[in-house]
Amino acid sequence: FEERPAHQGRRLVLEQRRAHAMLALDSLAAAPGSTWLRDCGRTVFFYGLWAFLSKFATVRGLSSSQEAILEKVGFFIGFSLLISGGRKAPGAAEGIAEAAVDARASGGLLARPPGAVLAALLSGLSAAVASLYGARAMEAGEASTTSAICASYPPVTLLFSAMFLQEHITKDKVVGIVLTMLGTLFFARS
Fold first, then answer.
1. Is 107 helix (H, G, I), strand (E, B) or coil?
2. What digits encode the pLDDT tens for the residues 112-135?
3. What is the pTM of this model?
């Protein structure tokens, strides 16, 4: 979440980042040869990332209500981009930018720490991507198997939280991870 100096052409950098993000979203939404098990794995990863980023945003200065609002904004923008293949309505980005400037000037939600706001928006994007893969996996696999595998994301959240939030991994959590993975293995084999 680093900020670049203004002399490096902030607008150009933002446009490049947006172009890279759009390419990544296009490749996620149109992944050829996808199987339900691969989509379950992607769902686990993105839900794990979603949970981590939600916590990260609150640790960095957002209230849970503020995080939830920005998460949904990130979700709906991200999901809209995913299902539209990256095409956006004319003026959408400009309208969001104007709203951000207005909110910042009035001391509102976007006056909060930029890292926290970005984490909340990325949390919503992660949930959108996880929802996409979860739906694809559910469509192709059995509901009981798919839902059990897709719900096994807490170990991913635990690892991100240990790495970036310095949360402790206790023996009980390790046992929980092992049992989660064993349960996932048994569901995947059925």
1. coil
2. 888 888 998 899 899 888 888 888
3. 0.55
